[in-house]
TrEMBL record:
Record bears the keyword Hydrolase: yes
Name the record gives this protein: Ppx/GppA family phosphatase
InterPro entries in alphabetical order: ATPase_NBD (IPR043129), GppA/Ppx_hydrolase (IPR050273), Ppx_GppA_C (IPR048950), Ppx_GppA_N (IPR003695), PyroPPase_GppA_Ppx (IPR030673)
Taxonomic classification: Bacteria, Pseudomonadati, Pseudomonadota, Gammaproteobacteria, Cellvibrionales
SUPFAM superfamilies from the UniProt entry: Actin-like ATPase domain (SSF53067), HD-domain/PDEase-like (SSF109604)
Domain of life where this protein originates: Bacteria
Key words, A-Z: Hydrolase
Pfam families, per database record: Ppx-GppA (PF02541), Ppx-GppA_III (PF21447)
Domain Ppx/GppA phosphatase N-terminal stretches: 28-302
UniProt domain Ppx/GppA phosphatase C-terminal: residue ranges: 311-476
């Protein structure tokens, strides 16, 4: 009998603006099976002030939730776990470094902050994992605590949108005192109009498509209509509910069947956004999916480990789109990886892969300019919507591309971004060796770490055969003198 492959387990932890969600799952054949789920209503967005600082009390609440989740994660290999931060952690940026460091110390794995577009892609992937029937045009809608994602696609996402609409952020903005309507001011109507304004020009997202909603706000509304069960939402039902809620004076007065008490504080805001979506996109019926971003993360993780890494596809698409010289990519890649092997016999798979991707993209800026192609290429990589990549991963790639030659710009290090000088050195040396786009071997060249400095030893005959390269290598030695780990060139 053939040997049965061991079943792999994966964990996804979504650090959302309203709640944190944990999913433990495994694949049986091609089918994902959810083994364990957990949720903590943290409302991280409530703790974000106007200057994007996180309130210490909210941070403590969030860290307590992570401590509760940690025992589930500790039994898994680190590469089978992915922890993702969304809208609030995007907004907090570097000011969340302290929180992120504490979170990592609890969980034992990094927290990846992702863009809104990447969040939308993962949501689409998760929802499609539960979709029945043949591929057809669908519009996926997810209302989170800080943002709302809309995706239109069939077999793959075709259009992705991330909007600044969230049930927690809208609750802070329009229902801060819990009031829904008072005297001449109807806060529900104001929230709904604000949401409709954000949705302008997006009517095409749902046109001709099957509409599927997911996550907390959508499920909460669905439960009100279906005696606590999650089922479809019809236009006439949500029109009626929106009218009723808009007449209630205070959130505490909401008396709705199936409304979870934990959801009550943000229900009016979530309903206002959802009703605005129904109205502005002219939706008559919405199915509700049990799956969302967490399931998408698990599918993404499994792909990374078994030959389906979305990031590789993204890089390859960029190479094709910008017509990057693939012969030069091959030369630089082969040489850089050989140098890295000389320098460190063992180097992490993720590190080597990051170096490969940086090399594939190192000349992307040449498609538009020659004089400043490094700066332009770095800007393109850092700010592009790169499917599969976290913000920190893109920042690492941009740093390598920006510093492939010339003076080395010191990085602005922060949580999750500590660029490796090993990778930078190997990239720069490989670019020098093949600056004239000529094939050269490393025979007679050895790169080593002497503890206090890098040492590049080259046979004199090799240098004599490439005088222009020799001059560039001596310039490179000077560029590294200001670094904590300088480079020493030794001709023998």
């Amino acid at each position: 009998m053939p040997t049965q492959m061991p079943i792999e387990r994966f964990a996804a932890l979504d650090l959302g603006s309203n709640s944190f969600h944990l999913l433990l799952a495994e694949f049986r054949g091609q089918r994902m099976v959810r083994l364990h789920t957990d949720r903590a209503m943290v409302r991280l967005a409530e703790g974000l002030d106007a200057d994007h600082n996180l309130d210490p009390a909210v941070s403590e609440r969030a860290l307590a939730a992570l401590t509760r989740f940690q025992p589930v994660l500790q039994k898994l290999p680190a590469d089978h776990i992915r922890v993702v931060g969304t809208n609030t952690l995007r907004a907090a940026a570097a000011k969340a470094d302290g929180f992120l460091e504490e979170a990592e110390s609890i969980l034992g794995v990094p927290v990846e902050t992702i863009s809104g577009i990447e969040e939308a892609r993962l949501i689409y992937s998760g929802v499609m994992a539960a979709a029945d029937g043949p591929p057809r045009l669908r519009c996926i809608i997810d209302i989170g605590g800080g943002s709302t994602e809309l995706v239109r696609g069939s077999e793959a996402p075709q259009q992705l949108q991330s909007l600044d609409l969230g049930c927690v952020s809208f609750s802070k903005r329009y229902f801060a005192d819990g009031l829904i309507s008072e005297n001449t001011v109807n806060h529900f109507t104001r929230a709904q109009r604000a949401a409709r304004a954000e949705l302008q020009e997006l009517q095409h997202m749902a046109a001709g498509a099957e509409v599927i909603g997911c996550s907390g706000s959508v499920k909460a509304v669905a439960r009100v209509f279906n005696d606590g069960e999650v089922a479809e939402i019809l236009r006439e039902d949500i029109d009626r509910l929106a009218s009723e809620v808009s007449q209630v004076e205070h959130i505490a007065d909401l008396n709705l069947p199936g409304l979870d008490e934990e959801r009550r504080p943000v229900f009016a805001a979530g309903l206002a956004i959802l009703h605005a979506i129904f109205c502005e996109l002219d939706i008559q019926r919405m199915e509700v999916s049990p799956y969302a971003i967490r399931e998408g993360i698990v599918h993404d993780l499994a792909g990374r480990l078994h030959g389906g890494d979305r990031r590789a596809n993204t890089v390859e698409a960029a190479v094709q789109r910008w017509q990057i010289d693939q012969n030069q990519v091959r030369r630089v890649n082969d040489t850089a990886l050989k140098l890295l092997h000389q320098l460190r016999l063992e180097y992490s798979q993720e590190g080597r892969q990051r170096l490969r991707w940086a090399i594939q993209l190192h000349e992307v800026g040449l498609a538009l300019t020659h004089s400043s192609f490094r700066k332009l290429g770095a800007y393109m990589i850092k700010h592009a919507d790169m499917a599969g990549f976290s913000r920190d991963e893109q920042e690492h790639l941009a740093y390598l591309v920006r510093n492939q030659r010339g003076g080395i710009k010191p990085p602005k290090e922060h949580y999750g971004f500590h660029p490796s000088p090993d990778l930078l050195l190997c990239l720069r040396l490989a670019c020098i060796i093949h600056r004239d786009r000529t094939e050269r071997t490393l025979q007679g060249i050895n790169l080593a770490d002497q503890g206090d400095a890098y040492r590049l030893q080259i046979e004199r005959a090799w240098l004599d055969s490439s005088p222009a390269i020799e001059e560039l290598l001596y310039q490179e030695e000077q560029h590294w003198q200001s670094q904590s780990h300088p480079l020493r060139l030794l001709a023998v």
